Fold this protein.
Amino acid sequence: MIRNLTNRIILILVIVGLALWVDLSDQITLPNPRGGSPLFQLNTTARLGLDLQGGLQVLLEADLPETTRITAEDMETARTIVENRTNALGVSENLIQVAGERRIVGEFPGAENSDAILDIIQQTGLLEFVDTGDFQPQEGEILQTDYGLDPTAAPPANSENAQPIYHTVMTGKDLRSVSVSPDTLGTNYSIDFTLTSEGAKVFGDHTAANVGKFLTITLDKRVISSPRINSAIPDGAGQITGSFTADEANALAVQLRYGSLPIPLKVVETRIIGPTLGADSLQRSLVAGLIGFAIVLLFMGIYYRLPGITANLSILMYAVILFAVFKLIGVTMTLPGIAGIMLSTGSALDANILVFERFKEELRAGRQMKQAFGQAWSRAWPSIRDSNIAALITAAILFWFGSTFGATIVKGFSLTLAIGVVISLFSSLFITHSLLALALDLFKPKNLERWFGI
């Protein structure tokens, strides 16, 4: 019935075996036969989304007047900086995406310190090295600088409300690297930095010309340190000192390392999901999925008999392969994603049902088993093809919608649906086809009512 059936069965067994290996492993390692570090290493731990393991979801909006024009480039830059900052805090499975023209949606599965995340993503992080001359401002004091200042908006020099305006020597954009180091007692921490070649020249020239003066360091106009220049610093390396704890120093270093936000952000909405609620959702989802899966397997076996049993084996293999693919490409599993999997499983069953019904019709028409088998797949293919193409087009539209408007639920559903449809097509057209051909060769059924329910 099928040429090279043995080769096809061997290929199926190899694919399923590799998929099971991935499913049952948290890390795949390919050892080096010569010793030393492995040739290949891949983390295959299942990634659970916010609704399955708990965490933080936050909606950010540009903190600017509605009339202010915000470019798509600024929003994308802000999104990247927020992602880098939160990754540096250890939240490595976050999902940050632009939603519309002024909003950013962030999801942080498993996040434990929500306050630290909210603090770090809202701060613009504008670092300035300010020349304050003989004046040493206190830590926490707000200074007005000439960086980004509109001259037409500044009060006249003789105005009673005039505040001193200090000159910004350079900004954080000239930083090359930032690190944290403790003092000798390990109680206070400082931030060590190095500058770019251009920044090093500016820094060196200024320190050489202002020995004995104060060079104040501000973050978002607030003083964090104001050291006296003891000597020229020509090598472009410096240190920010202050009463920093380890957490404070690390948070500041993250801000400086990943630059300043091009636009200020404010928190519009936050949603915290506890791990207990997430675990409960996961457990209920698994129970519902297993019940539904069992009902489907029973129906296929009872109604379609031998073809139904082969379809059941194919669906089980489909589930094994699908989960392995999700782990390999790092798909984050969510409740909507599980819904997409269930729907794509339905697509796989739908394809099998179309073939089996056509198979029955061909047998009822008196065709021989081999001829009926071939006609079933060839004549059912147009319907299978069209329905799967329609499902993929729908998934693509939903994915675009979710990406454009920040609807992560829709995006997760569409992604798992699309992947599931592709694998279900392989499952029904290759695996079921091969398994049914093997079963017909082995059992050579004669009683059509007993073996096929007709």
